[in-house]
Amino acid sequence: MNVPSYSEALELAIDRSYDINLDMLRSRNLLLDTYNDYLVGTYPPLKAMGDLNAEQLLARVTSSVDLYFHIPFCNQYCTFCHFGKEINPPPFRVDRYLAALNQEMMWSDAALKGKVIETAFFGGGTPSFLTAHQLKTLFDIINRRFDLSKSEVSFELHPSLVKNVDAADRISAVLQGGANRFVLGVQSLDPKILRVLNRGHGVGEVTKTVKLLDEMGVGNLSLDLMYGLPEQTFRSWYDSLIGLLEMGIEKFNIFPLMFKSTDPIARQLAKGRYQFAGSKERMIMHFMAGHILTALGYRHGPIFYWTKKSQPHSVQQCRKYDSWNDNNLVPFGVSGFGYMSQCQFYNEANLDRYLSRVEAGEKPLWKGAVLSQDDLMRRTVMFSLRSSGVLLSRFEREFGVPVETYFSREVKTLKEAGLVRISNDGVLSLTAAGIINSGAVSLLFFSDNVLERVAYNDSRITDKRTDLIEKHDYSPAGRYGSSEQMQAVFR
Description:
single chain, alpha/beta, nine-stranded mixed beta sheet, three-stranded antiparallel beta sheet, globular
């Protein structure tokens, strides 16, 4: 393959970075500093949610749904991870959790009966932490309820999987259960960075896992790769991407490190323990990857996803961002968040509370919100901009008002700043500068009401390093303020 050289990729990326005026964006409050930047995972975000009657989730379930299964177990605590997890639980704890998943699913059996399952996703935590026997149990529970034969079924893997003598048996159990897409969390191929991140794997495990998957006939594999990591240089970033390309990887999820005060890596940043890339350096890494992958025939979209295959990167991503409000995401497991019957919600994020509530016969609903028409319109724009864009004619047809009318101030502000554009065929989409600053773009569409609720609930948090709401709020709203405030919180 004719790979761009390091000097070529770096020079082009630096040139492209000069096209984005960070000072102008900062002066217009359209640039989030590295420690404040975050993607919108839910709208309204967790900090704007309150109590919700669980029965409302079953009121208007759509005809086709997506499923998410959270497996909260890991071998080690990665310094950047803020998702729900428990480290090295005993087997009986895992078995109890699988039984709870089965019981939680009973709650929605009637409402989901006959629904088309478009996608199912197994995330964590580390789903591949489960033994082959536990994986078979898990899939048996699910396949008794749902027909996954025509679904895209995605399963997350950790490279340390190959350290287990039953690695092939685990993959076989997952394949037999119906998985047809795998996501491998690599993050970096720099041994020093992997040690700082406490990843629990080295480059050798990545190579062995990719080889094992290939030998077992897995043809749909996507790798996660992160930039902005501690001690990461332009050279190590280039070498990691090239190393994975040389393994024949055809799908990537390439995204920046995002900080939360509940993660050890945030304290490393605040204390200056390691060198971290700033906004400019992160932008250059983003453009380096884009140049290399484009030169090799990869297609870009949604914003962090790249594929060399003719089909989209994944059905799951298309459903998440491009189906607007006409699909439901149904989560099962601790800390899972979903969208059902025009309600955004979270399951209990504490594992013991989740288990006790499910075993008592309850739906383990933690927080939620019923979306108004205004919320639905804002959610639609935020999510669609992250993917193929907002088709203006569809928006007006669905909501009865043009985007440029309802969001005239927001669209005007973003167009003047060069963060969005409207194509000749009537699609509102992010520019190159908008992709890099997508968190700030999304934040502009938050309603005043939601921002007020976020501010109120944020003010009630006494310790941002341990609070569960802080940990699981995936949003750029109500974060850390100035550099001095951030350091005080992170320390």
